[in-house]
């Protein structure tokens, strides 16, 4: 593994703004991927490091970069439940309708894991409720499987 990628990812994971700033200034590749396909932005977002994520985005990190499974930073924060970072990514034009390797979307993650505040955010940013995954399951189906009645109600209202 390239030591610069390791430093970038460690700084993103811990939210070390000083080190990230230094690495950005040195011209480090902000879209470099580690052995799992994670970029520094994905790692910062998955670890709820909003300030690091914002710094990376301001420096030109690709908002819709995906790991080797097709998961984006937005999908990760929808799974984990970080609405402020979801807003940040969407403000930087993250595409809420991208599908990962199995056809799932950020909206599907939010619905499956009961992240109903994020469902509202995604819908306000154009998330498409009609997309189905590789099994033919819709966001409504996935929410129902998990017993997310509130999520279904939100989806039906929008």
From TrEMBL:
Q: Which InterPro entries does the entry link to?
A: Ankyrin_rpt (IPR002110), Ankyrin_rpt-contain_sf (IPR036770)
Q: Does the keyword Repeat apply?
A: yes
- Write down the SUPFAM superfamilies for this protein, in alphabetical order: Ankyrin repeat
- ANK repeats span 6-35, 36-68, 102-134
Q: Which UniProt keywords apply?
A: ANK repeat, Repeat
For whether the record's keyword set contains Protein biosynthesis, the answer is: no
Q: Which residues form the signal peptide?
A: none
This chain belongs to the protein called Ankyrin repeat domain-containing protein
> Which PROSITE patterns does the entry link to?
ANK_REP_REGION (PS50297), ANK_REPEAT (PS50088)
Extract the SMART domains matched here: ANK
- The transmembrane residues are none
Q: Which domain of life is it from?
A: Bacteria
| Pfam families xrefs | Ank (PF00023), Ank_2 (PF12796)
């Amino acid at each position: 593994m390239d030591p610069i990628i390791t430093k970038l990812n460690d700084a993103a994971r811990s939210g070390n703004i000083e080190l990230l700033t230094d690495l950005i200034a040195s011209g480090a590749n902000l879209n470099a991927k580690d052995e799992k396909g994670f970029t520094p932005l994905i790692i910062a977002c998955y670890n709820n490091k909003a300030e690091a994520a914002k710094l990376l985005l301001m420096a030109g990190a690709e908002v819709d970069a995906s790991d080797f499974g097709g998961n984006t930073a937005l999908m990760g924060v929808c799974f984990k439940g970080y609405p402020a970072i979801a807003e940040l990514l969407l403000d930087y034009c993250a595409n809420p309708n991208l599908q990962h390797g199995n056809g799932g979307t950020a909206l599907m993650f939010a619905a499956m894991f009961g992240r109903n505040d994020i469902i509202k955010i995604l819908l306000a940013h154009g998330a498409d409720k009609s997309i189905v995954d590789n099994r033919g399951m819709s966001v409504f189906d996935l929410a129902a499987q998990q017993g997310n009645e509130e999520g279904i109600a939100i989806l039906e209202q929008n």
